[in-house]
Amino acid sequence: MSESRINLRNINLLLIFLFPIFFLIFGIKKQNEIHEKLMIQGIGIDLDENENYKITVQAYDFKNPEDKNNPRIRILECYGRSVSESLENLKKSTGLYPMYSQNRIIIFGSTLAKKGIKKAIDFFSRYYENRPSVKLRVAKEKAEDIIKSKIDGKIIKSSEVRDLVDEKSDTNILDFEKSICTPYSDPSMFILEKNENEIICENLAIFNNDSMVETLDKYETMASMIIKSAPKIGIYSFKMKDNLVSCNLENAKTKIKADIVDNIPIFYVESKLKAILLESYENFGDVKSIESEIKNELDKNLKNLCEKSISKSLSNKCDIFKFGKILRNKNPKYFKSIEWKNILGKIKFEINVSSEISVVGTDNQ
Amino acid sequence: MNKKIISLPQFIVLLMVNRLVISMTFGPSSINGNDIWDCIISSAVVFLLTFFMVIPVTILCKNSDGSDILDINEYTLGKFGKIISIIYSFYFILVCTYTLFSFKIFVENVINPPISFPVLSTTMIIFACYASSKGIESISRCSSIILFFIVFLLALIGFSLFRVTDFTNFKPFFYDGYESLTDGIIFMISRMSCIPAMGLLIPMTNGNIKKGIIFWNILVFSLMSVSIFLVVGVLGDLSSVKLFPIYTATSVSKISKFENLDSLYLGLWTSGIFIKLSMFLNLSSECLRKSFGNKSNKIIIFLLGIILFLTNTFSKISNSFKGIFNVKFIFFFTILTAFVIPFILLLLKKRSKKIVRI
Q1: Which terminus of chain B faces fewer neighbouring Cβ atoms within 10 Å, N or C?
Q2: CATH number of B313's domain
Q3: ipTM
């Protein structure tokens, strides 16, 4: 009897003791309501003439919704000497608390990308609200043009811009950090280009450390995706006997082996991929019979493109294909004895592309 | 004399949760900024060393008719044994302080919650005190539930990370020298607080202890190795730069439409911290209770909670206090309590038996 009383008293004491703590946790600390927050969806970072940052933000404003169900998409601009300072000004100008956890994409202006984006990205890799999976892109001209883009008078959402590239081929904050944390790998990013009524994303920017030095065109970009073993590459059209053949390229699997011949590294790049025939010349009934011809022509074209893509990268002393890492793992002693960036222009490579043609949609056996 | 109050699976689960909590915070700062990848070898070495280290404590407690290391200590060393009990109590509190300190660094750097850390840690200490007052049996039951979720989550994260593992990230072992091997071994042994805890837990356990320890060791070090493999596979050289690489890797894990798995990681890791604090508070109070006569366990736990609160607050004020979080300091105490003291006690016990026979 007395024991149960003691227990009851203990529980009461505990509850009395815990009450102020819960009060502290949930009561005193004011939480921002959703209408007090600015849900950032996309950030465009440009550099002005005075080397200050001009940041354009696309955000959801729940305080002034468009209608009952949809928040208003707001485009905001802020300036500052650093990214965090600029974004702080955003809070001052709107009175809303910026929330970065919903951010989809960060776009860098070409001027900034050429000068180096390491400093601009630092805030996003440090601040706890930012997620490392946020996608990174480079604008062909200004980042603000992409963030402000409209179709039929409506702003193009950042999530739609993000989805222009397959997720597995895209570059995020973590990928970028991984590439620049060692001197023997470099990042690459897709380029966003604004046309009159659309945003195109098919070229690739090559970086040397954190500075953009070169761009790959649409087909070279596809070749780089093959070398990087991308699951979805896209539709590739080529001429064969004065007719156009179109294939959907996917499931690329590339193996890169390294060797050293005459003290110069040589890389053997072996790519296999699936090519689904979508359009062909002459009549469809003959396609099966000329399958090997299509395959040979496609392989030859892709091989040329891969060579161009690698050459462009290496001639700019950029290693976007992780050749350095492969050589380091294969021959660490040799790798330690060389300055990787200096030797990049001299390395040799052999490429072999083999596609598996798949004919679908017709019964032409 | 202790009653057999926990089963063998509960014993394994308790030790597993306690070890995994520390493994989840493993990062370059723990090994002087050296390469994490080499720690796979360290982990294999420590796996073998653990079998060697547990021998004295297992033999000592297994054949002691329910007496734990403190009872044997008092029996063989008399009044001097109280000092040993106090050393154990200090060590267990040190483990709690270190755990809370890791929690603090993690919260301040990664989560940055809307509530202040002192409030969060005080709440944690209060609940840990309450749980430890309920006894080892209750803590082990609670840890079984938490371990189930931890294993489920680790499997989920592991599967998702394996798909994005880049095999070019695995550089040859000891590429930057052998320092990482020794630093890894020292770090992993310094976090072997489970072995001193075994000195009190084995007599309470019902079942084949030998099998349990083998199973626990295999499980802990295979999970540790898999974690290192995945983290390096996903982050590459970045794993040697990030403060909490395992957490960073989980933040990009994704399965189908399920993403942001790091939020689950946070919840489970915090639960693990709670279990660890509760268990070591309980063990520390048990040491003090036995050395100062059978005073009420709850009062001792309450006092230990206050000490934990003060050390937690004091560590914020004084930089010199941070010296106790030095790996070598904890390594010394771990070796002392896990191996040296049990080994000496084992020798003394065998000698006293011989004298009795003569």
Answers
A1: C
A2: 1.10.4160.10
A3: 0.83
